[in-house]
Design goal:
The structure holds two protein chains of two kinds. By secondary structure, chain A is α/β, with parallel strands linked by helices. Chain A contains nine helices and five strands. Helices cover 29% and strands 24% of the residues of chain B. The chains are: A alpha/beta, B alpha+beta.
Chain lengths: 296, 331
């Protein structure tokens, strides 16, 4: 077990023993190798928690399951959660959008030591590839943006120059070819909604793409529905996507969804100088459009 | 054994592709999937386990059941189902066993599902044995084998210099008439089936564990996505809806479609009025596994799992059906 793994266990045990939280969300070893999300309720269970390069999942998405009390009449649970710098940005978005309460949350921030230990395991669908996730390759954040305790020493790294170079491979295409590229990708989609389900920012009770009355999109698993779903989802995340790339990681058909999201990340950054989750702030797209003083 | 060369096999498949719908494993942007092919050049002969099952070709992800046209008070309805024969080539034995499991409900219960039955009758299953078991596979634990011929029409096995050919059914024998084969001495060697066996607890055991804590442990990290059910060769839930496709000149054209649904999704059990009788992840995960190992065998006979392992390798949060099976057996 890593040093940080021990510290996470220690912290989780302490939080549960003192009753500061009812549950700690962290990572445990997966029987198939790698890591997977874990929910710990008892202090003695804290020993299950681990920390290694396979802990890729953004656990913030699980906070949506903790918004309601477990029993009627009770308070919602207080939750401890292990976050990396990339994950922590989603907490800021959810706080700004009043989805979670800061005082019910204990954030166990872990300094990110990617990329020195390239290798290990990405977990889940891509387990065992040993490749550094693309999101890590372009990320310079080593300290979470929100935390109550910081574990590990953030390494000194040169700031990463954001050039959106990853977008070039589609943006350099003429429009017709770009459309063909996306239709080919969307065609592989099986409409399993894993991208939406894993996304901390996708928490609508009724997704407009899954309405029973099919008002916007019917239930068919065909190219037009998939096309509209992916473009619509990306737009709904404009200025809200924290670039954790979980949608891309979980996609069983490996759709390059980060290209859609980051296209809009750049748009919002250019227009509003806003990058989701860096601060506790709402997406300016919903509030500044056309108003006086807007950069538009 | 009957033997054929790869060249003769290709010639036969090219002929089939002319005469009927041919579905076979293909490389689709780096993913091995059963897909329609126009010639044998597109077919993979050396592949592991296609990432999705072949159920799309007997129970399409989206199927138009009726075309409806309305003009004034005149309503016409037309049923549209493809008539062409269909061959699924390179089907892995687990996927054929998946069809057998679906048959138990969709064919052998009264009434049968006529759309599924229609596709079943027009389709011939030509299997290619897995030479070994792949990551996550546990077919041998649930009554299958990497070279199981039980629910195929034809089984091919890769052997030195070509393929051993076995006609399993009359449908298979008829289809094989166009394939050049010769007799070769000896039998093909069996596939390596050395994966560790997972105990399958009987339905009564499962029922005792309905309220057990293990559903919380396995289900809480579920994302409520649909990957496991959509990659599964036996998951067969669907939903039905009508959609308008065009309104022009006083004529409304609509379609009645059915499309795959998934018991793991949040709204699967939501009823009129908004009540959801299965609102939690652990409850939904429990239902999925109970369906496979308790309800389905009790109600229809076969297990609802053929051990293909797809749900295991594709789950983004490592929910592992064999881990659940072991936990149930060990309780």
């Amino acid at each position: 077990l890593s040093e940080i793994g021990k510290e996470i266990q220690h912290k989780a045990r302490e939080l549960l023993e003192t009753g500061q939280v009812d549950c700690v969300i962290g990572y445990e070893a997966s029987p198939r190798g790698g890591a997977r999300p874990a929910f710990v309720y008892e202090p003695d269970d804290a020993d299950r928690l681990i920390w290694n390069t396979a802990c890729v999942h953004n656990l913030v998405t699980y906070l949506h399951d903790k918004k309601k009390p477990r029993k009627r009449g009770e308070e919602p649970p207080r939750v401890g959660i292990v976050v990396k710098p990339c994950d922590s940005r989603a907490i800021n978005v959810l706080l700004a959008e009043k989805q979670i309460e800061r005082e019910r949350l204990y954030v166990i921030g872990v300094a990110c030591d990617f990329p020195p230990k390239v290798g290990g395991d990405r977990g889940g669908a891509q387990s065992g590839t040993g490749e550094l996730p693309a999101r890590c390759a372009r990320c310079g954040d080593r300290t979470p943006v929100v935390y109550d305790v910081l574990l590990g020493e953030p390494p000194e790294v040169a700031p990463v120059e954001e050039d959106y170079a990853d977008l070039a491979r589609v943006e350099d295409l003429p429009p017709a070819e770009r459309l063909a590229f996306w239709l080919r990708e969307f065609d592989r989609c099986i409409r399993c909604y894993a991208c939406r389900q894993v996304c901390p920012g996708c928490y609508c009770t009724t997704c407009m793409f899954e309405r029973d009355d099919g008002l916007w999109v019917d239930m068919g698993i065909e190219l037009p529905q998939k096309h509209v779903f992916h473009l619509g989802r990306a737009l709904h995340l404009a200025g809200r996507c924290v670039e954790c790339d979980e949608c891309e990681r979980v996609c069983p058909m490996e759709l390059p969804l980060s290209l859609l999201n980051r296209r809009l990340v750049r748009e919002v950054e250019t227009l509003y100088d806003h990058r989701a989750g860096r601060e506790e702030a709402l997406t300016p797209l919903l509030f500044e459009l056309g108003e006086e003083g807007s950069p538009l | 054994m009957k033997f054929t060369t790869l060249d003769d096999l290709r010639a036969w498949l090219d002929q089939l592709a002319q005469e009927m719908d041919l579905v076979a494993p293909r490389n689709v942007d780096g993913h091995v999937l059963y897909r329609p092919v126009a010639s044998s050049n597109e077919i993979l002969f050396d592949y592991e386990r296609p990432e999705l099952s072949a159920k799309d070709y007997l129970l399409p992800a989206t199927e138009i059941l009726l075309r409806i046209e309305k003009q004034g008070n005149e309503v016409t309805q037309e049923e549209v189902l493809p008539d062409r024969k269909q061959v699924i080539f390179g089907l892995r034995p687990c996927d054929a066993n998946g069809f057998a499991a679906i048959d138990a409900l969709f064919l052998e219960q009264d009434p049968s599902d006529r759309y599924y039955q229609h596709h079943r009758e027009r389709t011939v299953l030509v299997g290619l044995a897995c030479p070994q078991m792949w990551e996550g596979c546990f077919c041998t634990s649930v009554g299958g084998a990497p070279d199981d011929a039980a629910h195929l029409d034809v089984l091919l096995r890769a052997v030195d210099g070509g393929y051993a050919v076995e006609a399993v059914t009359e449908k298979g024998t008829a289809l094989l008439k166009g394939l050049k084969t010769k007799e070769r001495k000896g039998d093909p060697p069996p596939s390596a089936a050395d994966a560790e066996l997972v105990e399958v607890a009987d339905p009564a055991r499962w029922r005792q564990l309905f309220e057990d804590k293990l559903w919380m442990r396995h289900g809480e990290r579920c994302l409520s996505c649909r990957i496991c059910t959509y990659v599964c060769p036996t998951c067969r839930c669907f939903d039905v809806t009508d959609r308008v496709v065009a309104e022009r000149g006083g004529v409304t054209r609509s379609e009645r479609i059915r499309a795959w649904d998934a018991c793991t999704s949040t709204n699967y059990r939501r009823a009129a009025g908004g009540h959801n009788s299965r609102p939690t992840k652990p409850g939904r995960i429990r239902n999925r596994f109970f369906c496979k190992f308790c309800y389905y065998p009790e109600d229809f006979g076969p297990l609802g799992c053929v051990g293909c392992g797809r749900c295991i390798v594709s789950c983004p949060v490592d929910i592992d059906i064999t881990e659940v099976m072991r936990d149930v057996a060990a309780r």
